[in-house]
Structures are given as structure tokens and as C-alpha cells.
Amino acid sequence: MAHPIKSKPSAILGMALMLLLMLAWPVTAAPLALPKLDNWVVDTTHTFSKAQHSALAQQLSAFEQNKGAQIFVLVVPTTGEEDIAQYSRRVYDQWQLGREKIDDGVLLLVAKQDRRLRIEVGYGLEGAITDLQAGRIINEFITPYFKKDDYVGGIQEGVKKIMALVAGEPLPPPASQSSSEQGSWSMLLPLAIFAVVLPPLASAVTIGLFTFFIFGSLILALFAAAVAFVLSLVGKVFGAGGRGNSARASRRGAFLGGLGSTRGRRGGGGGGFGGGGGGRSGGGGASGGW
Questions:
Q1: Do 111 and 221 belong to one domain?
Q2: In this structure, which of 185, 187, 217, 235 has its CB flanked by the most CB atoms within 10 Å?
Q3: CA distance 64 to 54
């Protein structure tokens, strides 16, 4: 005859284990929300002083302007239960680091409480910064500072080494401001004709103000005003000043229209901070700790 009473302890134990497993299942937390990209150095731990933050941000900005590649620094307390490599990849993709179709971005990520860091490298720079080189930068140049609680010094040294490797990589040149400057100069060509129509003094004042508005240079504005004054005098000598008022009005209208459109373009240049449209890292880089 069976004795069901003896089986009760094992049944209760089994049910207890199942209950513990069910309670433990939701413990795996959702991935942490990523910080907003609003600067070259995103420091959510207040590790950098204002002066240190500004100096490094200016250095990274100047590097992009000269080389084209983007290097960003992110310092967070923790990546939560997410592995730092996975967290770094999410940041890289969401921030769209590097230029579009070039993917020449680098992310230096530090999780202070976790005592972990990672260098995430875009596809376009995997030849310049191999996984081995990224690991050496971490182990030989960054973590020695971190072990002495000099986080800023370690990050600065790491950025310096990353820049040196990227600088030696042949990359497409950065998008310069030459096209916009050429557009601004081309706008002055019709104004040269417009200057001939106006009286000399009015021509000098108008062209000088317009040039200062476009280029922001007083010296250049004075030079343009002098040229406009001379052109107007030459125009009067050769009879260009005898044109009708209707022609003057039409040119004046074109000038004002161009002025308004230029102001609109300058205002539109103050958009938000962001990456370069890249975002493909492919998992290249290295992680480490201290």
C-alpha cells in the first residue's frame, strides 16, 4: 500500500523551487536608457570639471574639423546588468557616430561604478584601430591612471592615443565650409553690378554692410565698401548711372530678397548636436577593467 504522506515534503520542496524560479525570472532588468548626445564629452558622473570638459570637447571638435572622423567620450555610473560591449554598441548605433557610409567614429565608454571601460570602433576605422591596439590603449595607457583614481588623466591619455592612430588612416576629407563660402562670394557678384547703379556713397555703405553681415569681418567689409565706391564712380564715368529707376528698383528688390534668404540660412545653422549619420561599429574594439 502506498504512503502518500511521505511524498509531501518532496512535493512541497519542488513547488517551492518552482516558485523561486518564477520570482527570479523577472529580475533581469530592462536595458538602461541611453544618455542624450549633446556634447563631444557626455559625463553623467560629473567626473570632469567645467574647464577639463571644455578643453577636451574643443580638442575633439577640432580633430573632427581637421580629419573628419568623430571621437566621443561617455562616462556613466553603470551599464546596469548589460554587458559593457552590448551597451557600447547600443550607444554607438543610437548616436550614429561617424560619417554616413564612412563609419569613422570611435566611442570611449567608461562605467565608473562597474570599473569597466570600452573602446568601440566603427567599420571605417577597424583598420586603423584593431582590437589588439584598442586593448593596448586600455591596458597600457588608460587603466594605469584609473587605478590611481585619475579618471580624467586616463581618458585624456586614451583620447590622445586614439587620435594618433586615426590621424594616420587615409580617410575622405572633412566636409569643409568652402562650399558655403563660395556661395557667399557668388552672391557678391550680382552686387558688384548693383553697386554701379547706386551713387558712390550709397553703394559703399550698402555693399559694406552686406559684406559684414555675410562674413562678419570689418576689414573685409571696409575693403568691399571701397571697391563698391570705385565701381560706382567708374559706372558714372561710363554712363552706367543713367539707367532707369525701374532697373534700380528691381535690383534693390533682388538685393533685399537675397539678404532675407541669407539670414534664414544662418539661422538654420543652429541645429541640435548630433553624430555624423554613421552608426555601424560591427563590434570592433576592446573592453577592459581596473
A1: no
A2: 235
A3: 16
